[in-house]
Amino acid sequence: MARKRITDISYKNFEELxxxxxxxxxxxxxxxxxxxxxxxxxxxxxxxxxxxxxxxPFKPRI
Length: 62
What we know:
Strand content: under 5%
Structural class: mainly alpha
Low-confidence stretches: none
Number of strands: 0
Oligomer: single chain
Radius of gyration: 11 Å
CATH class of the domain at 14-52: Few Secondary Structures
CATH architecture of the domain at 14-52: Irregular
Helix content: 25-40%
Order of helices and strands: HHH
Largest sheet: none
Number of helices: 3
């Protein structure tokens, strides 16, 4: 399970955001993350911003 406390959801904390990606670099669903709907949306936006800046991958490395 990916239930982890996250205090600040920001694209700058890409090391913490990696925890919310599965092995195929997809964002984990809310049931697995244990976040509220509001924080899950913030998480998705932060991951997408980090991807556009090149901090997180769009696709898994094969």
